[in-house]
Amino acid sequence: MPDTSLLAIAVSLLYLGSAACIYRILLTYRNTQGAIAWIVGLLGLPYITVPLFLVFGRSRFGGYVKARRMGDQSLSELLDRFEQQKTSLSTPEQEHLDKQLQVLCKLGRQPFTEGNQCELLRDGEATFEALISAMEKATSYILLEFYIVRSDKIGQRIKSILEHKLSEGVQVWFLYDDIGSVGLPRAYLTELAKAGARVASFGNGNIRRRRFQINFRNHRKLLVCDGKVGFVGGINLGDEYLGTVIDQEPWRDTHCRIEGPAVTGLQLAWLEDWNWASNEFPDLDWAPEGKMPGDERVLVLPTGPADTWETCALFFLNCINNAQSRIWIASPYFVPDFQIVNALQLAALRGIDVRIIIPEKSDSQLVRLAAYSYLVQANQAGIGIYQYQPGFMHQKVVLVDSHYAAVGTANLDNRSMRLNFEIMAINTSESFVSDVDSMLTEDLTHCRKMTKQDYEGRSILFRLTCRAVRLLAPLL
Q1: Per-residue b or e along 59-93, where b marks 16 or more CB atoms closer than 10 Å to that residue's CB
Q2: What is the pTM (predicted TM-score) of this model?
Q3: Does the annotation mark 177 as catalytic?
Q4: What residues in the chain have per-residue pLDDT under 70?
Q5: Is 194 a catalytic residue?
Q6: Which residue among 72, 177, 226, 435 is the active-site one?
Q7: Cα–Cα distance between 125 and 239 in angstroms, integer?
Q8: Of 30, 232, 251, 419, which one has the fewest beta carbons inside 10 Å?
Q9: Of these residues, 159, 255, 396, 403, which one is catalytic?
Q10: According to the model, what pLDDT value does residue 4 have?
């Protein structure tokens, strides 16, 4: 019968598509757990899994590498020139420290730079005050890149400042992620563009090259003014970071202000993303004049799914494996894969003070449930997991011994390690590390240390749910 023939053809095509997806997985997978999950789904439920795989299944962000390294000769030359700068990171007695930090330079293809001055911004109020001050003082250009932009009080104030600076002749380039900023009204962007700003979306601006890649996000939050002052951290453009949103818990987050040659690293990361999104190459300042503003050594480490290596995962592993006395990590999302869990366990068993700070109240119930499933393993090894109580803790901070600290956008989850474009600023300055130490120590006074009883003392249904959600770790 004709209907039967058509059905047979459709089923054959479906399984052919499933086989093609499995072929691609076997050639390109980076994470075994995720690959097995996809293959099981493609074999068992191909009519559901094939469409899902086409949208969410890619493990590498195609096209970006070519655009970054080969598509524009000027960009490639800038990256190569900046990468070749060398900095001595330690004394001969600290050769071990020098080697672990130079690994990070190789991962990010950026050097540690000397002569920087950094300020730790401990909350939204301090961050927005510093951001606004820097933008108001800009005389040449302003580069913005944020995952979430809202049209609330903060969003409107930022837009007003940008429009005013445009009227003064300052150039503005505004890059946002179309998924993170899905609620941003079109009028907000249109008005900025009419005022003279160059506006681009990381996704929609390059649909042809980004097809079937919507699972990838540009999670970076950075600002650069005149190539001299830059900002990076966990704070997006929204009122929630000020704790002024009605019926919403206050957000606890951290940002960092950088002045000096490390701003070049932020600017290069922005330029790569802008070049991908718009195929444009703005004329920017790459050699700011004047005396070095400080004496701090800073590395800007961009990571993402277009990298040759799993740069973000290797960053965390390098920090954990090389810690000699402590490794403290603050992350709103704690859904690590087996290699991160194993590294944390080994560090704790070596006698390292391992502390993970996560929020008690989360904006993702699935992520919150998954975190409970790690408690027994963590407690057995001596890993301390602390729940921040006052509100939603969104900061992404890493402290290694008393040697260096990192502030940025990367979380301890699969999305940050394999799917998101992230960025971290790593600082070896004694004063900056001390500030991070004091900040996290203060945060810990507002935390409750979790025990395995928080998991084992709950109902069997709760525990089964936590374990089941953990299976989704590669997709969360």
Answers
A1: bbbebbbebbbebbeebeebbeebeeeebebbeee
A2: 0.85
A3: no
A4: 1-3, 29-34, 37, 47, 54-76, 78-80, 83-97, 204-215, 245-247, 288-291, 473-476
A5: no
A6: 226
A7: 10
A8: 30
A9: 396
A10: 72
